């Protein structure tokens, strides 16, 4: 009979077995690799002291790992990108504690993908039910599984969770020979705007260099982290991820990173960091920063340079990250995301389910509205939407 165990660190779960489950999952991403999750913990970025207490769940058959997921007991709702602040406030107004809550997610990473790793659907359902049991044992107000795939959604629905949908903006390859061919498929106003923005960046004397994997040097990472800190400083916040985390990425998962550095007069002025999944030809926009303001540099560093690189290297997908309707004007199209939620308090279950039903209807209308404003010419928009 399989046994569910709670582990206080991903280190308690065998790396090879975890990654085998991930590679066999419906939608693997680099962010669910054992090395990535371990680095979050070992670098002090996602630990109890920062409000992320690891409670990784494993389903075992003797010494064989049948299913597993990254779970965290949270004392806040920061770093999640699926917003439940209104739910927490409703609990507070009724004199009830919303925290701790149980969260299944990759911290600070709003990238859709498999969350409940399992050898089959039966093991995945056992894991989903185990999460509900763990939430009760931990006296958590609720369970939240963020950005899961369709198999996750099905297992969690069977376990009594309710779905919630959001929207992101992704680019999908359409066989363009180069970035110029990509631009040619856009409506004229969108194409002209992009060309104008890139021209202004060039006129400012900015040139880009791209470094991949082990070609990214320690001094490149150092400058990137300076820019990363600056981005948070400009928003009067502090970075979620430590410099040590990125050092671990450079050492443990170098093949999953691409760094664009913008220079002017030979001096570094900005960077954007892109995550790569070479096996599945997918790229993910992650972090950006600049040490001086140059108009339109953000768009070039975060969208145009990565898209051109993806086209040149045969990548099939580029995910632009959380939110941002402005990404549509850059050729990224709206894509639904999903999460699953369960609340322990029966009075709040009905209220939240009613809210999610209304929100779901509004999201459907929002997607229709977005699709009416696709940036591509009519035939290309239809092809992109169906790909």
From TrEMBL:
Organism superkingdom: Bacteria
InterPro entries, per database record: Acyl_CoA_acyltransferase (IPR016181), FemAB-like (IPR007434)
Family annotation (Pfam families): FemAB_like (PF04339)
Coiled-coil segments: none
Protein name: GNAT family N-acetyltransferase
Species of provenance: Pelomonas cellulosilytica
Organismal lineage: Bacteria, Pseudomonadati, Pseudomonadota, Betaproteobacteria, Burkholderiales
